[in-house]
Amino acid sequence: MRLMTIVGGAVLSAALVSGCGSEDSGGEGDGGSGSGDSQSSSASGGGSSDGGSSGGGSSDARAVAQEFIDALSEDDYAAACALFDPAYVESITDAGGTCEGSFEELSSSGGVAFENLEGATAGEPELGDDETTATVPVSKDGETTGQAFLVTVDDEWRVTFDPQ
Description:
By secondary structure, the chain is an alpha+beta fold. The protein has one domain (2-19, 32-154). Helices cover 39% and strands 16% of the residues. The chain has helices at residues 2-14, 36-45, 58-73, 77-82, 86-94, 99-108; strands at 121-122, 126-127, 133-140, 143-153, 156-159. Strands 1, 2, 3, 4 and 5 form a 5-stranded antiparallel sheet that branches. Strand 3 and strand 4 form a beta hairpin. Helix 1 (2-14) packs across helix 6 and helix 2 crosses helix 3 (58-73). The relative contact order is 0.25. Mean pLDDT is 73; it is low at 1-15 and 17-54.
């Protein structure tokens, strides 16, 4: 199914689940992982929770990546979808589904265990030369497990499938 490929590809390309399958999900707290509740409010509004512009700053890219990780680990697919590049979400709806529904299907089919993201943290982003793209390492239990790709859209960082 094309819809599953689209969302599954984004999640797998973001590599948020690639190494987060350890049995011990109690994170080691290596920074930035504790405040999921305060961060999730900006996910639905699309803005930065600290009042500044989200695009361009590496700390803002890191915060958006952490919000995405936290949303998925809490099965808050609406918040996760709010952090995607809108063009990506449009490709999902063009394929005949919803972003949230795709995450639910991935989770319920056993294809992805988002709860394994609990305790995962976003690291220091590497910004692209033009500072409109970022690659954010993701770690859990002190080990880098993958990366998330972000792009600026209307001066806001968004999770993307295609890091360009």
